[in-house]
Amino acid sequence: MSHRSKVLLWSRDPGRSANVENILTEQGVAINRIASGACDGVSFKDSGANALVLDFGGGKPIDEQEFRSLWSAAHEENLKIIYLAEKTGTLPDFAPKDDASVQILAGPAQEQQLLTRIRLMTRLETMAEEIERRSETLGTFGIETPYDIIASEKGEARILLVADPSTDFMAIKSAITTTDNHVVGAYTKDMALEYLEDSRFDVIVYDATDNRDALFDFIFALRLDARFFNIPLLILGTQAQIGDPEEIYEAGATEISFKPVNEASLAIASKALIREYRYHRHLTSIYYSARQDSVLDEQTGLFRFGFMMDHLKALVEQSDQSDISLTLAFFDILHLDAINHEFGYAAGDSLIRQIGNLISRFFRGEDLCARHGGDEFVAILPRTRIAEATPAVRRLVSTVNTTQFQLGHGLPPANFCLTFGQAEYEHSDTAESLIARARQQAHPH
């Protein structure tokens, strides 16, 4: 089975980490377990891994020499390192805690929390890969793109703290306030959303209460607005207040920290989320600047067919060599010929432009959206399995099929139907066969 990412897992207690391994595997993360005590001279070259997870919980602490071997091997291959710990204080003194490559999950960490971190880490890596790959594809069209992927945003970070002032507001504010950030307090959902309208924030910290409905109301209000969709959201609460953590993550939380809050863990978590979000914003800004008119379709602003095919061939080659997941979605506007016949070609062109705009808004920056030709469109989702792509695809189709489109002056608004098909890369697929399988689903008869 293809995977979206690969993780190396070290644990002193294999039984303890078995559940972690099962959860990650079910979600498309390939796991390579590293045997404890067999790390002298270890090398991760050609492992294809994205990260090294060190489980410090349970059993006796890791030997310093063993840790140094793992750390050195990970740094040689530029792997991210994730510490799992019962609490921050249980980490050994010799384990670096403020290194840019390190993430710390303490609490103890939930399996879903680890999965969320790996997904975010993989997405950032995919975005960086896609920038380089698109630059290479643009190079074949004679376009140079000198982008600095390493650079990131600097300056004071802004944290929005949403909490009742009568509870733990001051303790939480103290834990997340440093010389490098500024904390703004909001006492209600409406106040928080107003602040978000007026200013840019790097992370939101939400202190849950016994009212779970209020928590879900805030998450839904936040994630339904495209401007705030990617802002990291850190939820604080007791086990009783949080309930089933998976429900909170599915609603849109980025991370959960259980009370009583460990100030050191909270400070580390907020700092890591800020760093990742700023890198994400930097990569997103590169995506916007990397759009070159000569490879874009004039009507829709999506990539042209030729660029899409060259880029897809490179992605298929990567999937073939590394067994990395890849999904392609195919869309078709039904009965465009009838629209042109009844209302004129200007009306059909207007509909194509509007639907093309919707397609570009419903997918991530690293997903490549293109016009296949006429009334057909393609979205390519790297490092994505078909089950992960389906929600975005269905949201787009549902939106198009329930929207009344303006076709031009003097014409009444009208509804139209968008059909779709999806295909996930299979061994021996070509760019052409992947498109053909998705296209066949969009046109089953």
**Would you tell me which CATH topology of the largest domain applies?**
Alpha-Beta Plaits
What is the count of DSSP helices, taking H or I runs of 4+ residues?
A: 14
**What is the number of strand segments?**
16
User: Gyration radius, to the nearest Å?
Assistant: 24 Å
Domain module tally: 3
Order of helices and strands: EHEEHEEHEHEHEHEHHEHHEHHEEHEEEH
CATH architecture of the largest domain: 2-Layer Sandwich
Within the largest sheet, what's the order of strands? 2-1-3-4-5
Q: Largest sheet, described in full?
A: 5 strands, parallel
Q: What is the CATH class designation of the largest domain?
A: Alpha Beta
Q: What number is the mean pLDDT?
A: 86
CATH superfamily of the largest domain: Reverse transcriptase/Diguanylate cyclase domain
- Terminal CA distance reads 29 Å
Query: Percentage of helical residues?
Result: 40-55%
What proportion strand? 15-25%
Q: Unreliable segments (pLDDT under 50, ≥5 consecutive)?
A: none
**What structural class is derived from the secondary structure elements?**
alpha/beta
- CA-based shape: globular
Secondary structure layout plus pairing:
Elements (H helix, E strand, L loop, with lengths): L4 E7 L2 H13 L2 E6 L16 E5 L8 H13 L3 E6 L16 E5 L4 H30 L16 E6 L6 H8 L4 E6 L2 H10 L4 E5 L4 H12 L9 E5 L1 H4 L2 H7 L3 E4 L4 H27 L15 H18 L3 E8 L2 H8 L1 H18 L5 E6 L2 E7 L3 H16 L2 E2 L8 E2 L2 E7 L6 H12 L3
Parallel strand pairs: 1-2, 1-3, 3-4, 4-5, 6-7, 6-8, 8-9, 9-10
Antiparallel strand pairs: 11-13, 11-16, 12-13, 14-15
